[in-house]
Amino acid sequence: MNFTSTIVPEELHYAFWDVNKNSLDLIKYKKFIISRMFERGKLEDVLDIVVLYGKDEVAKILENNEFLSQEGIHLAHAVLDIPLDQFKANALSKYYRSTAI
User: Fold this and answer.
1) What is the pTM of this model?
2) Range of the structural domain that residue 44 is part of
3) Which one of 13, 23, 73, 88 has the minimum C-beta count within 10 Å?
């Protein structure tokens, strides 16, 4: 994929059905974009996002996202080789399940 501007390319619009895609800046909203692509993106597009932002930056953002879905966690684990216990969302999910009534 060719990232020639700071706006999310049209090829990725399918993952952002609920926001104004024309104002979705790749720099300003990188945490949202990275997380959404790992939760809703095609594998090829996820890999392009890793190339765009860099493996370390993507890993740091996903590890610290408290609301990352289980699908996003497991894809990040497989693609970026991050241990499952490194994800804040996974730790919080386990906490909430253990305190459920």
Assistant:
1) 0.88
2) 10-98
3) 23
